[in-house]
Amino acid sequence: KRFKIMSELKEKIITEIKKIYDPEIPVNIYELGLIYKIEVNEENKKVIIEMTLTSPNCPVAESLPNSVKENILKIEGINNVDLKLVWDPPWTKDKMSEAAKLELNL
User: Fold this and answer.
1) Is 0.85 surpassed by the pTM of this model?
2) Do the Cβ atoms of 91 and 34 come closer than 8 Å?
3) HSE-up of 38 (CA within 13 Å, CB side)?
């Protein structure tokens, strides 16, 4: 039962993340493969996110992580988001989902 709750929260988190698009590529950041890790700690209602950006000097480097944080905090039952920007491993087109690749004709 515990696991079920866990996956529902995770689904909600993913749904929220999918509302955020990379400004340079018309695909949401989840399908782009920019989210490396989503960890939910149910006891203290905290979410740990590790994400990257398509490039370290991405002009929206600041706003994307904030959007992710804000969207996740809207979810009922989540009090805290610990978001880390990581550059290792660097993002490549290989990290994109099949859907994203089709969308961009890659």
Assistant:
1) yes
2) yes
3) 19
Q: How far apart are CA 49 and CA 68, in angstroms?
A: 9
Using CA atoms in the order 98, 70, 74, 72, what is the torsion angle rounded to 10 degrees? 40
Q: Over the stretch 3-43, which tens digit does the pLDDT of each residue have? A: 666 678 899 999 999 999 988 888 999 999 999 999 998 88
Do 79 and 45 form a contact (C-beta atoms < 8 A)? yes
- Reference 54, options 13, 81, 21; nearest CA is 21
